[in-house]
Amino acid sequence: MSGGLMDDMDPEEGFEEPGEESGLKSAGAEEMLASEDDTIKKVSAGSMAEWRLSVSPKAFPAVLSVSVSSGRDDAPEWEVMLYDGASEVWNSNHASDLVELSSSKTLVLKAECPGGGRYGDSVSIAVTLKASSYEESITFEAVAKQSILILKTQIDQEKSVADSLYAKANLGEKDIYAVLSPQGLRGYVFVEGMNTDRLLEKTKEIKKARKFIEGETSIDDISHYLTPASPVIRIAEGDIVELVNGPFKGEQARVQKVDPVKESVVIELIGAMVPIPVDVKAEWVRVIEKEE
After folding, report:
1. Could you tell me the maximum CA-CA distance found in the chain, to the nearest angstrom?
2. Is 90 exposed, middle or buried (0-12, 13-18, 19+ CB in 10 A)?
3. For 247-284, b where at least 16 C-beta lie within 10 A, e where not — what string?
4. Which one of 25, 45, 188, 272 has the fewest CB atoms closer than 10 angstroms to its CB?
């Protein structure tokens, strides 16, 4: 860090070698607190971030304390809990309680993202262990991210529901980021948003909307809906097609060759006096009879 108060200090002055009397852990000393999980996690509204924490005090008795701070003053509160097996030993609703330890153990730290959280809301959790003259801390952070929910609709009313929901996207709190109604997927609409409570509220007055499926999906699960399929997939050599665009629009032809790279097909017009191969875009043809 530059520009700090310590920049002008002589490197030989003002420092003590860390040791037992300083209350700091010596370099290379065994850690009293350790976690193999990433200290920063992203979690959607209503979901839980979780870390496993190994606690190995240098001496007993030892005391564990937890400090919670929010990244935004007016943000909804995250609930933070600490578990020893199935037993809850600390909760942010009773933050004055300290956890006394008489043995080494593995604890589980959990942070629940509030349903009313906004994108980027966060919570910082400092876990501190004191034993004799030793003190050690680890800070964990959870950050709110958007959810992708699946909304069940009346069959063949997917686009109507998507349009109605999209119209509500900019009303009030802007919780809806995207609405997707994939072609060919009947009875379902994907909704990307932040505040799951308000998403439920905004669908209540949409007549053809049914309910959200429990849980959420991921961008990986729906990525194939986001990439348009190549038009050549549905065309094979020998197919009879109708030209729906271009100078031969309305004419019928037989496919002679398919080029997936260029996304084009070579056709011969059926009604032509002299069959001449013509290269056209695959999207310009409609299959009317498949080659058997």
Report:
1. 101
2. buried
3. ebeebbbbbeebeeeeebbebebeeeeeeeebebebeb
4. 272
Order of strands across the sheet with 122-131?
40-44, 134-145, 122-131, 62-70, 99-101
DSSP-derived secondary structure letter, 90: E
- Domains annotated for the chain, with CATH where assigned, are 33-145 (2.60.40.10), 147-226 (3.30.70.940), 231-289 (2.30.30.30)
Residue-wise pLDDT tens digits, 92-144: 998 677 899 999 999 999 999 998 888 889 999 999 999 988 899 999 999 99
**In Å, how far from its chain's centre is CA 152?**
21
Residue that has been written with the tokens 């030209």 in this structure: 243
State the residue for tokens 């109604």.
181
- Provide the 3-class DSSP secondary structure of residue 197: helix
